[in-house]
Description:
A five-stranded parallel sheet has the order 2-1-3-4-5, sandwiched between helices. Helix 1 (17-32) runs parallel beside helix 6 (182-201). It is built from six helices and five strands; from the N terminus they run βαβααβαβαβα. The chain is globular and about 60 Å long. By secondary structure, the protein is α/β, with parallel strands linked by helices. It has one domain (4-201): Flavodoxin domain (Rossmann fold, 3-Layer(aba) Sandwich). Strand 3, helix 4 (103-112) and strand 4 (123-129) form a beta-alpha-beta unit. The chain has helices at residues 17-32, 53-58, 68-86, 103-112, 147-156, 182-201, and strands at residues 4-8, 38-42, 89-95, 123-129, 162-167.
Amino acid sequence: MSDLLHIAVSPMGENSISRAIDASFMAAFNEKYPNAEIITHDLATENIPHLDGEAIFAGYTPEADRTPTAAAKHNYRLGLIKEVNEAKHIMISTPMWNFSVPSALKAWIDQIIIPGAVKVSGKVTVIISQGGSYAPGAPREGWDFESGLLARTFESIEAKDVKVILAEFGLAGVVPGMESFVENKAASAAAAKAEAVVRAIAE
């Protein structure tokens, strides 16, 4: 059983807002739990395969009838599921791409969802960096299809404690026309880091 299952998604390295907030979470977590067992998947460098038909139907095929490749794909899924089931805390940091989940993270999610096999017993923290704002009153209110999807996904596999932490205006100062939101960007990132630290050390 691990103390933390850590999933990082952004490929932007030191330019990533979600990874900066992730780093604040991890620093606080490591300080409080210096001997914690942590499992990390960095989806920017680790290739989590997308499901194919063989992987999907392996779960509906008796073990003795699975081909060697189907068995390998199914066992790979069970290994990821074991990490989820046994984690005391799951933390995911990710950007929002095109109003939803990056495909690398969606691949991991699809791999772990086998009804009856996966059940979250620990708490879940999801850190999301957004390029703009999708809050009530914003021009694109309601266009955030990621935060709700991730929360509902973990609730569907019985997570009881799911926290979503948002950092907004990530493209301010990057995309022309968003210069006036640079201060909002800094304030939102700082608030998200503070929230992540509290979440990391909460019992």
